Structures are given as C-alpha cells and as structure tokens.
Amino acid sequence: MIRLKKLLILFVSVAFVFSCSTEDPNNPKNGGIDRTANLKTLGASATDLLSDVNFTSMNIEIVYVENNKPTDEAISKFKSFLQNRTYKPDGIRITLRSVASSGKAPFNIDEIVEIEKEERTAYNAGDEIAVWIYFADGSNDKDNDEKFILGSAFRNTSMVVYEKTIKEFSSRHGAPSRAIMEAATLNHEFGHLFGLVDLGTEPVSAHEDSENEGHCITDGCLMRASIEFGSGVVDVISGSGVPELDDACIQDLQSVGGK
C-alpha cells in the first residue's frame, strides 16, 4: 500500500546493504540469482515495464494459494490491459501455479514480503522483465467495517491481491462479479507498478487525489482509490466493464515509454 512506502524504502535499503556481502546467496558469483533489480521501490521500473528499450518481453509469475486461483476471464482482461499499454514485441507471458497456505492471514505487508522470498522464482533475465503477483487466502490486517483492501503493489515488480476479500465482496447483492473485481484490482495495482499516480512517474498534468496519495482524482478512472480500497468499488465499476485509465494517466505512461 501507498502509506507503507517509506517502510518499504527502508526494507529495500537494508536489502542493498546486505547485497554487498560475499555471503549473499543472491550474488551471481556465489551461484545464486541476482534479485536486486526486482527489489527496488514502487514505480522504479515504470519505463522498463512499459517500453522495449531494455526489456522486450515480460514474464508474470502468478502464485495463488490453493482454492484462490484467479478466474480465466480476469487473466484475459489483465493481459489485454498490459498489451494495450506496453511495448513488448517478444510477448507477455503469464504463468500460474498454486502453493500451500502460509497460515499467516490476515496479512501485513511484511508477511507478504516474506512469502515472496519463499515463493518467488521469476526474476529479470536478459531482455525479459519479471513480475510477481500473489493471490492471498486472507485479508489485509488493516481492514475494517468502512474500508477494506483489495490489493497492494509494494515494490517495483511485486504485488498482492487479497483474493479472499474479493470473493467475499463479490458475493454481496449488487456487487461486481468476482472476475471483474479481480481484473480491476490487477490492472489498478499494475498501474502503481507503472508509477501512477506520481509514484515514480512524474505527472504530465495535475491529477493526483490530494486525499489519497498515489491515486487519480478523475471520476471513473482505473486509478481512483476506491478500486484499491474497496469501500466505493461499486460506484467505480459499473455493469460488466473494468474501468479504463483516463487521459491524464495515459499521458503519464506515454511520457515514460508506454502506449
């Protein structure tokens, strides 16, 4: 989440300090995987995700807890969103696999970070950039009766979707379908990976919501805070469609290499 950005910056700083040690298993010289490119702050890889300057393909690893697999419809809509906004001539690959429950729900972001350490296998390699997405079997520990969190982007190529919360909310009378809520959450959180709004990608025009850091002020925009926090998601998602980015957000992405 946005309000945990400073905490995560501290975490990343610590990670870089330890990467200097010769004992570090992530050091390629020690036969490990160099993970440092995927341990940066939120929005730091916006241009790499959007353009084909450094990376011509994208590998998205979706890890879901058993019985919390995202719907095929949501994945299809999510991939279309990425294809419409990014330049990846060698393609966007999405793989899904199930894992056992961590037993840690409800989650704070530090626990999600620990799960990523254990379960993530996809990292940047050559001209392919990698993203990790976790579909959790629980809720965020800061949920309350007035606000609940559907997803969180927490590093440059990392995000979590609280699938249990989505399934519970989508079962309510008049709520959007599970597939639409999943797709809206995936697209919204990836928007944060793209640096929206003013999270690493400098806005071309003033459109950040002053009351909700990192979100757009335009009614109906995909980057409205209501999608991430769920309390007003019914007002944002109408019918069977997933909200689109408004012109201001699209211009921001185009300014750093996107479509």
UniProtKB/TrEMBL annotation:
The keyword Transferase does not apply. This is Membrane metalloprotease. PROSITE patterns: PROKAR_LIPOPROTEIN. Gene3D superfamilies: Collagenase (Catalytic Domain). Keywords: Signal. Residues 1-22 form the signal peptide. It comes from Christiangramia crocea. The keyword Mitochondrion does not apply. One of its GO terms (molecular function) is metallopeptidase activity. SUPFAM superfamilies: Metalloproteases ('zincins'), catalytic domain.
